[in-house]
């Protein structure tokens, strides 16, 4: 029987380390989770949500899927957003993509991997929506990274347009939606400058986030 004992051993060491640092840590977590943030990110093993932003168990509510896509009819993602906003009362939703995303690359190259091609069709939709902008980028890596950014921007819009977030804003709940991108090559997160606090801000923020070379500057910092 395969048991993955090395992972169990590693877990024991991790729990001991946390207990040594803060003896009551796990006991306190039993009684409540009180995260301020919801993280919507890519499933990529190189983008572990909590580690990247230095947050402990209990501090980050997380949803991940391939290429951090938010689809209006995805009950899984919608349920996570609803529970986070309405039950946990989180104040910030972060959509965090990453440069060199394999899912985005597959979408660009129209690679065939089976069932997942249907999921990545959503990223192809983003690509076609921004075709004029992307066609102006000759370097393939730059084009790939730019689509990673644009995909984040479009998913932020999708989050803002969910009934959950629309309703939260209508009743005056403090919820902001942010677009971030992570560099797997340097471990750094960049704010895409696309944060939305209410419905009225969305259009102008979107225009700002999708014009020209804005994000090329971010990559070269
Ligand atoms: Zn990815």
Write the layout of secondary structure elements.
Blueprint: H1 5-21, H2 25-31, E1 37-42, H3 49-53, E2 60-65, H4 75-87, E3 92-98, H5 102-109, H6 116-129, H7 131-135, H8 140-160, H9 163-170, E4 176-182, E5 189-196, H10 202-210, H11 214-220
Parallel strand pairs: 1-2, 1-3, 3-4
Antiparallel strand pairs: 4-5
The protein binds zinc ion.
Zinc ion (ZN) is lined by residues 42, 44, 67, 98, 101-103.
Order of H and E elements: HHEHEHEHHHHHEEHH
CATH hierarchy, class of the largest domain:
Alpha Beta
Rg, alpha carbons: 19 Å
Which architecture name of the largest domain does CATH use?
3-Layer(aba) Sandwich
Main pleated sheet: 5 strands, mixed
Strand order of the largest sheet: 2-1-3-4-5
How does this model look, in words?
There is one protein chain. With 221 residues, the protein is α/β, with parallel strands linked by helices. It has 2 domains: 1-31, no CATH class; 33-220, Beta-carbonic Anhydrase, Chain A (3-Layer(aba) Sandwich), CATH 3.40.1050.10. The chain is 52% helix and 15% strand. The protein has 11 helices and 5 strands, in the order H-H-E-H-E-H-E-H-H-H-H-H-E-E-H-H. The chain has helices at 5-21, 25-31, 49-53, 75-87, 102-109, 116-129, 131-135, 140-160, 163-170, 202-210, 214-220; strands at 37-42, 60-65, 92-98, 176-182, 189-196. A 5-stranded mixed beta sheet has the order 2-1-3-4-5. A hairpin with a 6-residue loop joins strand 4 (176-182) and strand 5. Helix 5 (102-109) crosses helix 6 (116-129). The model has no long low-confidence stretch (mean pLDDT 94). The site of zinc ion has 7 residues, from helix 5.
């Amino acid at each position: 029987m395969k048991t993955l004992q090395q992972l169990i051993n590693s877990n024991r060491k991790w729990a001991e380390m946390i207990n040594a640092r803060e003896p009551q840590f796990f006991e306190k977590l039993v009684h409540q989770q009180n995260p301020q943030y919801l993280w919507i990110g890519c499933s990529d093993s190189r983008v572990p949500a909590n580690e990247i932003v230095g947050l402990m168990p209990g501090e980050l509510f997380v949803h991940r899927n391939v290429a951090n896509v938010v689809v209006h009819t995805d009950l899984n993602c919608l349920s996570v957003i609803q529970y986070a906003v309405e039950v946990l009362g989180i104040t910030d939703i972060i959509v965090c993509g990453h440069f060199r995303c394999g899912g985005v690359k597959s979408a660009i190259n129209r690679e065939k991997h089976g069932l997942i091609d249907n999921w990545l069709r959503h990223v192809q939709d983003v690509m076609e929506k921004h075709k004029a902008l992307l066609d102006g980028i000759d370097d393939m890596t730059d084009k790939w990274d730019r689509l990673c950014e644009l995909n984040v921007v479009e998913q932020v819009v999708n989050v803002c347009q969910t009934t959950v977030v629309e309703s939260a804003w209508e009743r005056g709940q403090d919820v902001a939606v942010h677009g971030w991108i992570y560099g797997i090559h340097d471990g750094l997160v960049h704010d895409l400058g696309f944060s939305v606090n209410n419905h009225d801000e969305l259009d102008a923020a979107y225009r700002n986030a999708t014009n020209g070379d804005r994000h090329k500057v971010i990559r070269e910092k």
